[in-house]
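Hi everyone,

Forwarding the result from last night's run.
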Amino acid sequence: MNQPDYLSAIESGIRHELAVICNCSPDALPASLTREQAQTYFGVENPRTFHVWKSTGRHGLVWLKRGRLAEIATESAIQHRLKSVEIPPTAA
C-alpha cells in the first residue's frame, strides 16, 4: 500500500469513528463538533481543556462560532488526527 492509499484508509477510519460519535453517516458529518462530541473524539475528560486550546491556539484547530458557543470544525479535527499518523516504512 502506498502512502496516499494508506492515509486515505486512515482518514476513512477517522470519518467512520466521527460518524459513530455524531450518530450520522460518514458522508453526512456535521460542519462542527459539539463540546461533548469533541470530548469523546479527543479523549478529553475536562471540558475546560478546550478553552485553553482555543485561547492559546494550541493544536491549530479551526473554531466555528455557533451563537455564543465556539465549536471545533470537523475537518480541522480530522486533519489534526491525520497529522499525528506515523506512516510505516512499508507504506512509504
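The first strand starts at residue 32 and ends at 33.

Cheers,
N.
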